[in-house]
Amino acid sequence: MNSDELPIAAAADTRQSESTADEPEREAVTDLTATEPLGIQEASAQALIEEERIPLLERVETEQALPSIVTGTSATVTEVGQRVADLQRREQTLRREIAALQASQARLQEETAAAQAAMGRLVQEGLKELEQRKQSLQISVEQLERRQERIRSEMRTTFSGVSQDLAIRVQSFKDYLVGSLQDLALAAEQLDLPQPGKAMAQSIDRTTPKEDRTSQSATTPQFAEQSFQEQTKKIRNLLDQYRNRPDYYGSAWQLRRTFEPIHAERVSNWFFTQGGRGAVRTMGSRLQNILIASATISILHTLYGDRLRALVLAQSPERLGEWRRGLQDCLGITRSEFGPERGVGLFEDPMPLAQKADRLMKDGLMPLIIIDETEEDISLSLLQFSLWLAFAPNPQAATYSY
Q1: What confidence tens digit (pLDDT) does each residue in 110-162 have?
Q2: What is the CB neighbour count within 10 angstroms for residue 304?
Q3: In what order do the strands lie in the sheet with 308-313?
Q4: Cα 145–402–167 angle (5° rounding)?
């Protein structure tokens, strides 16, 4: 049975049940009409008829409305069916979407877990590397701190640290000594001291020929006199050659280094103004002072040959070692040229140097005394010789020897 037949069957059943229910009433009316008088029976029948007529009218109206109710119900059932089908389709679509979202969620959770694990490994590796670097830096810092403490302890206890403190404290006193030394040198230059060479020449004049007197007087040159002025042109030519045309591969005892105008000015002043006897202000570096001394030795060796003997005075073996290496480098000489009986002598004490210079003078040789900047006191015994070159420190600045 379809949905359209359901309301009709229900209406038929309703009519059948109503007719079945009316049958006892009719029997009761029949019984009443049989027993009651005729007038009363007619009135009762009329009432019963009226009572039956009203339900019958209602039934007719109900039966007339049934087709429209059945039609509306059929349309409603069709619409409901369509909505149910749509809802079922939407349900299936939603189920598929939910399944896809759940799969995507599971995949994202796996990727997130993998990323978190990788990030955790990276963080652990980074922390481990940072810890290692921190430990190495701490070890380095501890080593540097221990080294700093050791250096400070050495400075407080060793001679170098104590000497540095003492040097700073006596700097003013040293400036005073330097000024006094320069004044003493100027006063010594102005003294009219008898020249040993002249006295020897006078004694020889009485017993030797004229040519011997000329040879002996040449061993003690007086650079400020007219005899030296004759060699001025040659000295200037050599200075110009050193300055403008340096020969880096020349023969031994020839200057092999670059010679600046300031160096030439110091050497020229020592020759022509100071007459080969005097102090020259330091260049601020021992190597620069050695360059000036090397130029002086080279010029004198060119003028007097092997008769020249350079005697260097410095306070310590380390400074003498610097002088030896510097002279070798600037003059192109070998280590065999250094020694008591060689071209260059190195001395730490002024007394042996003065004795050596005196013996050289007696042997007819020409000593050139070179005094290092660090010599604070100059022995008066050194000032009696004809050739001496002293490097005076700068009073306004601390020297490089500290």
Answers
A1: 999 999 999 999 999 999 999 999 998 999 899 999 888 887 777 666 555 55
A2: 16
A3: 277-281, 388-392, 366-371, 308-313, 344-347
A4: 95
For residues 111 and 227, membership in a common domain is answered with no
Range of the domain at 265: 176-192+223-392
Domain count for the chain, please give it. 2
CATH number at residue 279: 3.40.50
**Residue of 253, 231, 219, 200 lying closest to 386 (CA atoms):** 219
Euclidean distance between CA atoms 391 and 282, whole angstroms: 5
Q: Taking a C-beta distance cutoff of 8 angstroms, is the pair 395, 178 a contact?
A: yes
162 domain-assigned:
no
Show the 3-state SS of 247-272. Answer: CCCCCCCCCCCCCCHHHHHHHHHHHH
User: Are 124 and 184 within one domain?
Assistant: no
Phi, psi of 305, rounded to the nearest 5 degrees: 70, -140
Beta bridge partners of 309: 367
Q: What is the pTM of this model?
A: 0.46
Tokens of 318: 């380390």
CA distance 235 to 208: 32
Q: How far apart are alpha carbons 289 and 279 in whole angstroms? A: 12
Nearest to 321 by CA among 356, 357, 291, 346: 346
Calpha distance 86→89 (Å, rounded): 5
Interatomic CA distance for residues 223 and 300, integer angstroms = 11
Q: What share of the chain is helix, strand, coil (3-state, %, to 5)?
A: 70, 5, 20
* 180 and 139 share one domain: no
Q: Same domain for 243 and 353? A: yes
Do residues 311 and 370 touch, judged by C-beta distance below 8 A?
Answer: yes
The letter for the amino acid at 386 is: S
Residues 252 and 343 in one domain: yes
Domain membership of residue 46 (yes or no) is: yes
Q: Which residues of the chain have pLDDT under 70?
A: 1-45, 47-48, 50-57, 59-73, 155-180, 182-183, 186-230, 395-402
